[in-house]
Design brief:
The chain has helices at 3-8, 13-16, 33-46, 55-75, 88-92, 134-139, and strands spanning 83-87, 99-101, 107-110, 117-125. With 144 residues, it is of the alpha+beta class. Strands 1, 2, 3 and 4 form a four-stranded antiparallel beta sheet that branches. A hairpin with a 6-residue loop joins strand 3 and strand 4.
């Protein structure tokens, strides 16, 4: 639920909390939030306090999905020419000289150079080093 809706709804979980009750808030920009929400929902069901079909659980799981999508949108910039998602191993290889980190956070994903699942970061070209393979020149009719 969005902050303004939670605050304006007198029946919201936040507004039903007792004055001296301890509460904990998860933000969509926290990569761990969706897993924490899903763990909470799983524990509620394990304890027999809820079922998967209960509105409280359905709302929580929907919130986790929305947070995950929000986090991905905020952390994964649109693909721009002359940028690649690289793992640190590939970045330090000589074939990727001329790339520098773009300042975006590292995420778990596929390296565009080696294809491995690893922590990757978007790197941008900072020099005129050709990042294409020699085979691509042959396909364009270039040097053989």
């Amino acid at each position: 639920m969005k902050k303004f809706r939670e605050l304006s709804d007198p029946e919201s979980c936040l507004n039903r909390a007792r004055d001296n009750e301890i509460i904990f808030v998860l933000l969509a920009r926290d990569a761990a939030a969706p897993a924490a929400i899903r763990a909470w929902a799983g524990e509620r069901m394990r304890l027999g306090k809820n079922r998967l079909s209960d509105p409280q659980i359905l709302e929580a799981l929907s919130c986790a999905d929305a947070m995950e999508a929000h986090y991905r949108k905020d952390t994964l910039p649109p693909v721009v020419a002359k940028q690649k998602m690289l793992c640190w191993v590939c970045w330090v290889c000589a074939s990727h000289e001329g790339f520098e980190p773009s300042g975006r956070p590292t995420i778990w994903g596929e390296c565009e150079a080696c294809g491995r699942q690893a922590e990757v970061q978007r790197f941008k070209v900072t020099s005129t080093v050709n990042s294409e393979s020699p085979d691509s020149e042959k396909e364009k009719g270039g040097a053989e």
